[in-house]
Amino acid sequence: MNREAKRDTTPRSPSSPSSSTTSFDSPGSERDPHPPPSLSPPAPAMSAVLSPLIAAQLNYLLAHSPLPLKVGPVWAGSKNGRYADRFTLLVPFCLDYIKWDVIYNAGYPSVPPDIVFPPEDDDFHPLIPVGDVKDEKEGEGDVHLRKSSLSDWNSKDPSRLLALVHELRDLYMRYQKKRIEELDDARLKFEISTILSREGIEVCMISSPDRSEEVKFAVPLLDIDLNKLVLACPWRHQQKIYLQVVFPVRRSYSSAPSAPRIKLVSSSELRSLFSVEDVKLPTWLDGMCMAEYLPNLEENLKTQVVEAVASVGARRRFIEALPSLFGRPLEADPVFCRRATVLVVSGVFTFLVHFSIPTQFPKQQPILTLQSSQHFNSQGTPIFSPPINDYPWSPRWDVPEMVERIFDFLVDECLNFKKYCNDTMPQQQ
């Protein structure tokens, strides 16, 4: 049977493009079947309601902080208290989270909270003028105390907790830097002297019972606003790509120190545009320092990010080409163009085709998943095919040919899928 004859009797859109219920071209009309994860911190799971003044402070902090803060357990200090008045705050730092307990008093909600730090930071004493003798003589500690967020606390100002948390985080960064500067490790002293002037770098000590002390650097890469690379981008927090570098602490200088452990890190939201797991890191040569390693890495990374942004346009053109044979998509991702769904009919058999389009498109082909509209398992959910990516494909084809080749593949595959659904049904009964 030739191709034209096949199209008359095999998969087709049940309606013309003009009669479809949703339009990929109409802004706001699409609903992404797989929306990106929420960027807002999870709401606190409370066993009791926070005091109104305390709740206002916490809600303002979560809504206005540029940091992706999270809230852990929320509890009441008094068993007979009407309101909860304390909670665990997870503060992002150096590509991890530190846990601080924020302790209010529901009986006196206008009083500023106490902040309890974890045992491993028992020598972290911010806002207390107990610096070295020189600092005390010059009054630097007293000056800092007068200027702290606690010195002019106003419980009716919901922004005060935000100011306090950010101030403490800045002081914690200085505390960690000072700890590392005091180490007797020539290599780390050199790395700090050559790299910490770079904006946005964070550094911290890592201690664990089963390994020796280590120092972790979190180095932001690319002087590019990633949030502005994609039109109508939904990200709330600023997206960044970091190089995580972990050095072992050495008490004596080694002429040929081993290479540190390195990896790229980004938020999960960025994967809708670009996956750092796909980046091959350059080799860290013997005797190399971070200042030597970063330029080559950033040059390669910038090229790949530019290609990822261009891939959004290629994916968009692919989705826009679907209506020529499948009709307009029922659903589509209008921002990153990673997913689309079309409704197809073959005789009396009706099914959905879900397109999952990789960030490496067109180098990598879309993954197809078929979903029957007429066959259901014992739980009452539709029967799906396994993911399909073994159909004919070439990144050198133009977009209309890609769509045409997929259509031709589904001409035969829909028969196999219908048989799969019929064979599966008796097993569920």
Automatic annotation (TrEMBL):
Biased composition (Basic and acidic residues): 1-10
Keyword field: Apoptosis, Cell cycle, Cell division, Chromatin regulator, Cytoplasm, DNA damage, DNA repair, Mitosis, Nucleus, Repeat, Ubl conjugation pathway
Region (Disordered), start-end ranges: 1-44
Keyword Lipid metabolism: no
Keyword field contains tRNA processing: no
Bias kind Low complexity: ranges: 11-27
Organism superkingdom: Eukaryota
Location within or outside the cell: Cytoplasm; Nucleus
GO BP: cell division; chromatin organization; double-strand break repair
GO terms under cellular component: BRISC complex; cytoplasm
Compositionally biased tracts (Pro residues): 35-44
Family designation: Belongs to the BABAM2 family.
The protein's name in its UniProt record: BRISC and BRCA1-A complex member 2
Protein's organism: Elaeis guineensis var. tenera (Oil palm)
Classification of source organism: Eukaryota, Viridiplantae, Streptophyta, Embryophyta, Tracheophyta
